[in-house]
Design brief:
The protein is of the alpha+beta class. It has helices at 9-16, 104-115, 175-187; strands at 4-5, 36-41, 52-57, 61-65, 70-74, 92-97, 122-131, 134-143, 150-159, 162-171, 190-191. Helix content is 17%, strand content 37%. A hairpin with a 4-residue loop joins strand 4 and strand 5 (70-74). The two termini are 13 Å apart.
Length: 193
């Protein structure tokens, strides 16, 4: 079932008050289990929905986040982990980006060169991948220290001469458990009809 998800600041405020506790295990134990629902996302302050649909685990909510600049996708009451603390692997951020990725190979080469200068990041994956019939960019970066060490996994897809980023962060020790869920979500992205 497809639906346009409209997001309000009131919902975000209510959910922010619900707390930030989260479990360190995959939803339903594995990405292949459970029901998924198709959503058509609308970014806060935009005049229409994004030209993509995405499948999310049943019950996950789509709500505005960070002063209505980004969208948070997560189970009810869950929020992303704070900087310097363990990541919440069940919280996905969606945001507008000013980066034009119509020449995705050139963008990957530029990103690779820039990231090589940052000694605090380890680039595990940085590649062009076809998603929803367009060239997107997939990245997997390791950062942080100790218990806060995380893998940030992202998908960047074109939106005219700009792009949209879908990003999750996961503690490094749990990433192999969550990666199938992230892949299922990223691979479900389709052009809206």
């Amino acid at each position: 079932m497809s639906r346009t998800v409209r997001i309000t600041a009131a919902v975000a405020a209510a959910l922010a008050l619900a707390g930030t506790a989260y479990a360190m295990e995959p939803a339903k134990g594995a990405a292949e289990q459970g029901k998924f629902e198709t959503h058509r996302l609308q970014m806060p302050r935009s005049t229409g929905p994004l030209p993509y649909t995405i499948e999310l685990p049943e019950g996950w909510q789509v709500r505005p986040w960070l002063n209505d600049q980004w969208v948070l996708i997560a189970p009810p009451g869950e929020m992303p982990g704070e900087v310097g603390k363990p990541a919440n692997p069940r919280a996905m951020i969606v945001r507008h980006s000013i980066v034009d990725i119509r020449d995705a190979e050139a963008i990957v080469a530029n990103m690779r060169a820039n990231l090589a200068q940052d000694k605090q990041l380890k680039v595990d994956v940085l590649e062009v991948r076809e998603v929803a019939g367009v060239k997107g960019i997939v990245s997997q970066l390791e950062s942080g220290d100790g218990d806060a060490r995380r893998i940030t996994y992202g998908l960047k897809v074109p939106l005219g001469d700009k792009s949209i980023d879908f990003t999750v962060s996961c503690p490094t020790g749990a990433f192999s458990e969550y990666r199938p869920l992230y892949e299922r979500i990223f691979n479900s992205l389709k052009k809206a009809s």
